[in-house]
Design brief:
This protein folds into 2 domains: 134 residues, Nucleotidyltransferase, domain 5; 172 residues, ATPase, nucleotide binding domain (Nucleotidyltransferase, domain 5, 2-Layer Sandwich). The protein has a 5-stranded mixed beta sheet with strand order 3-2-1-4-5, with helices on both faces. It is an alpha/beta fold and 338 residues long. Helix 5 packs across helix 6, helix 5 runs antiparallel to helix 8 and helix 7 packs antiparallel against helix 8.
Length: 338
């Protein structure tokens, strides 16, 4: 008999709740976004995000249950993001989940946000062959992780400065396109020519799977200043977006393929908000398939923060009997695998 897991996600600026059946069927996945609120500030303001979560969390949970056509009495477990993330935002979700767990007497599962992004893949395809390498790319994280089986992780590489998502946001700000940067750069890049500018690629020392995007961000800033002074330049901001996107995608793809070859894996998967980028998805799939790897990336709706991926991971923890106590607390710097 399949269990029903209620997932709750409040790590940053999305308030989300979902009901997932048997780890593979999302009966609901409600996301209340705060993008419109934070756009005028050019990024997420933690105090504002926390207050908005307090206002939205109960209505979002109720809508999720209504859409799934299920009551709390039928829920078999509650999975909630405990970190990493903004501590005030995390505490709203954790406190709510603990309250429901106590009142209804159902198991509570504290979830690592990065791990749940990985499990967005298994929500949409539970038959991905192990071992695998996962590229996790989001606003706050850029990691390469080796997984020999469920729940076992080896961090192969991470960003040494800006995460890929941060680089997209900062580049968009330089180009005057606002926040969030990822979607608008993806859209504008399709109107530009990526061969117009050769932005730097930071591959770091030989054999390293770490990432660095701060130099690329600086190069975009300098090029934008040059274009503003040269009114006769044939290069457009759309060309800059395409060239920037090319540089990010090339580094991410090459390092992911190198990591997969070094670990002799069967599959390559991707996760996180930047995994929604059209060029990264296409380039990674092309190179992975060319090398003979099984490739999977979640649908766009499961790349950004959502509670269905949290509930999916909750399914695997519930199945293994890995539960949290009511002393569960938010961990803003919660490391993967702990």
């Amino acid at each position: 008999m399949s269990e029903y897991i209620l997932g709750i996600e409040t790590s940053c600026d999305e308030t989300s709740a979902a009901v997932v059946k048997g780890g593979v069927e999302a009966l609901s996945n409600i996301v209340s976004s705060q993008i419109d609120i934070h756009q005028k500030y050019g990024g997420v303001v933690p105090e504002i995000a926390s207050r908005r979560h307090i206002e939205a969390i109960i209505p979002v949970i109720e809508e999720s249950l209504d859409k799934a056509d299920i009551s709390l009495d039928k829920i078999d477990g509650i999975a909630v993001t405990r970190g990493p993330g903004l501590v005030g935002a995390l505490l709203v979700g954790v406190a709510t989940a603990k309250s429901i767990s106590f009142v209804k007497g159902v198991p509570l599962m504290g979830i690592n946000h990065i791990e749940s992004h990985i499990y967005a893949n298994f929500l949409s395809n539970r038959n991905i062959p192990f071992p695998l390498v996962c590229l996790i790319v989001s606003g706050g994280h850029t990691d390469l992780v080796y997984m020999p089986e469920h729940g076992i992780y080896e961090l192969l590489g991470k960003t040494r400065d800006d995460a890929a998502g941060e680089a997209f946001d900062k580049a968009a700000r330089v180009l005057g396109w606002g926040y969030p940067g990822g979607p608008v750069i993806d859209r504008m890049a399709q109107k530009g020519d990526g061969s117009k500018i050769r932005f730097p690629r930071a591959f770091l020392e030989s054999g390293s799977y770490d990432f660095s995007f701060s130099g690329l961000k600086t190069a975009v800033l300098k090029k934008a200043e040059q274009l503003d002074q040269d009114t006769n330049s044939a290069i457009t901001y759309e060309d800059m977006a395409a060239s920037f996107q090319d540089a990010v995608a090339e580094v991410l793809v090459r390092k992911t393929i190198a990591a997969a070859e070094s670990k002799n894996v069967k599959s390559i998967i991707a996760a996180g908000g930047v995994a929604a980028n059209s060029q990264l998805r296409a380039s990674l799939e092309e190179e992975a398939c060319k090398k003979g790897y099984y490739f999977h990336v979640p649908p766009l709706s499961l790349c950004t923060d959502n509670a269905a991926m949290v509930a999916c991971l909750g399914h695997y923890k519930h199945k293994a009997g890995i539960f949290s106590g009511l002393d569960l607390n938010a961990l803003p710097n919660y490391p993967l695998g702990k």
